[in-house]
């Protein structure tokens, strides 16, 4: 049976040889090719004085028995002295750092005007009745919100809308639309924020924000 010649690579290094063993192929095929290369294709360089050998298994986690099988094949060549048989350390998946993208704008949005933003938006000014402010992220308004605001416009229901004075004509978060402010049961809505809970929009005091973002890092 012919043996494929791509599962084992033998590289010369300063201190001897490194055997690079394929970590995805069948174990028996790997041993067969290792035997073949030691007996046939690399016979000339594997003769003579003692040569130190380090075996690299890639991502394969070999058992003690499998490592012993490798030793038995290699030690048939009397001049090869195995120094190590090692697997690569497991890769630790590091979660990506959340991207913090905050845009700060100032001014006044008048009736008939629309402001759209990508990411979180801090708006220093008022949104008048008939004015519209939208963002794919959170919206924080340091002023009066008396027009329409739409946060999480790309579908993010975790977005919030906060305002120093919250008397909007309409609030939207993703696809959720708020009730009329007259139905909130709040006469004067100062330092409020809107968020989605169980598919419905809720209004609460801004100092209660930690209840929905308990693990939010301090910036």
Distance separating the two termini: 65 Å
Q: How much helix, percentage-wise, in residues?
A: 10-25%
Elements, N to C (H/E): EEHEHEEEEEEEEEEEE
Strands, total number: 15
Count helical runs.
2
Radius of gyration: 33 Å
Please tell me the CATH architecture of the largest domain by its name.
3 Solenoid
Low-confidence spans:
none
CATH uppermost class of the largest domain: Mainly Beta
Can you give the mean pLDDT?
A: 84
Integer tally of domains: 2
**Beta content:** 35-45%
Class from helix and strand fractions: mainly beta
Q: Largest sheet, described in full?
A: 6 strands, mixed
CATH-derived topology of the largest domain: Pectate Lyase C-like
Q: Within the largest sheet, what's the order of strands?
A: 5-7-9-11-14-15
- Gross geometry: rod-shaped
Spell out the blueprint of helices and strands.
Blueprint: E1 8-13, E2 16-21, H1 27-41, E3 51-56, H2 64-74, E4 80-86, E5 102-109, E6 114-117, E7 120-127, E8 132-135, E9 139-145, E10 148-151, E11 161-166, E12 170-173, E13 176-177, E14 190-197, E15 200-205
Parallel strand pairs: 2-3, 3-4, 5-7, 6-8, 7-9, 8-10, 9-11, 10-12
Antiparallel strand pairs: 1-2, 11-14, 12-13, 14-15
Helix pairs in contact: 1-2
What does this structure look like?
Helix 1 runs parallel beside helix 2. The longest helix has 15 residues, at 27-41. This protein folds into 2 domains: 8-86; 102-211, Pectate Lyase C-like (3 Solenoid), CATH 2.160.20.70. It has helices at 27-41, 64-74, and strands at 8-13, 16-21, 51-56, 80-86, 102-109, 114-117, 120-127, 132-135, 139-145, 148-151, 161-166, 170-173, 176-177, 190-197, 200-205. The protein starts with 7 loop residues before the first strand and ends in a 14-residue tail after the last strand. A 6-stranded mixed beta sheet has the order 5-7-9-11-14-15, with no helix packed on it. 12% of the residues lie in helices and 39% in strands. Helix 2 links the parallel strand 3 and strand 4 (80-86). With 219 residues, the protein is mostly beta strands.
């Amino acid at each position: 049976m012919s043996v494929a010649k791509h599962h084992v690579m033998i590289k010369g290094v300063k201190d001897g040889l490194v055997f690079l063993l394929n970590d995805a192929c069948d174990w028996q095929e790997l041993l067969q090719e290792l035997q073949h290369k030691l007996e046939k294709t690399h016979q000339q360089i594997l003769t003579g004085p003692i040569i130190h050998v380090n075996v690299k298994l890639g991502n394969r986690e070999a058992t003690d028995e499998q490592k012993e099988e490798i030793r038995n094949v290699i030690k048939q060549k009397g001049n090869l002295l195995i120094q190590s048989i090692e697997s690569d350390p497991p890769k630790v998946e590091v979660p990506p750092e959340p991207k913090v993208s905050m845009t700060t704008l100032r001014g006044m949005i008048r009736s008939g005007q629309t402001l759209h933003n990508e990411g979180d938006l801090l708006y220093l000014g008022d949104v008048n009745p008939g004015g519209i402010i939208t963002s794919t992220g959170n919206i924080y308004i340091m002023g009066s919100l008396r027009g329409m605001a739409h946060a999480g416009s790309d579908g993010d229901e975790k977005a919030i809308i906060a305002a120093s004075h919250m008397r909007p004509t309409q609030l939207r978060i993703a696809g959720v639309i708020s009730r009329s402010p007259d139905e909130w049961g709040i006469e004067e809505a100062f330092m409020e924020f809107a968020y989605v809970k169980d598919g419905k929009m809720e209004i609460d005091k801004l100092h209660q924000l930690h209840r929905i973002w308990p693990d939010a890092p301090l910036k």
